[in-house]
Amino acid sequence: MDQWISLLKANDYLGIKKYLSNGANVNAQEDNGESVICFAMRYRCDDEIIELLIENGANLTHVDNEGVSVFDVAVTYNHLPIIEQLLESEFDINTPTRKSGFTPLMGAVCYGRIEVVRRLLGKKANLSARDNHGFTVFDYARKMNKKSILALLEAELHGTD
Predict the structure, then answer these.
(1) Which CATH number fits domain 1-65: 1.25.40.20, 3.20.20.80, 1.10.150.20, 3.30.1780.10?
(2) Which partner from 68, 120, 125, 139 sits 20 to 30 angstroms from 154, CA to CA?
(3) Averaged pLDDT score across all residues of the chain
């Protein structure tokens, strides 16, 4: 992973392309299970690099050792192209992958990603889901002081806009 991390930190498209052509594993993982595509988002690599990784088989359904999915990382770093791609695929937005039971909608709420929240609501994200601590998206919106998101969630719950 050291070579991957070096190339990704440098945002080195040509270096990554060459590394891939020399047989690098696009789905390599760090000891904690974090994948190359997640590191690329963490280091805010250009979209062209993300696309190159996907074209070369990056697993967008990967989940690390703690249950953090590629979707979760995309929400964290607000990487809309991957979010959109996963929402258009068979990605199950209502089944938490994290050991804590934290759902993708909870993540979008906590990070204040209102557009992602809207997209998840449009895909019928479960508003009543609870994590392992018993918290709902409403609890997280209140706790994180996300007033506009809380209003959006309440409007969705009550069928108003």
Answers:
(1) 1.25.40.20
(2) 68
(3) 95
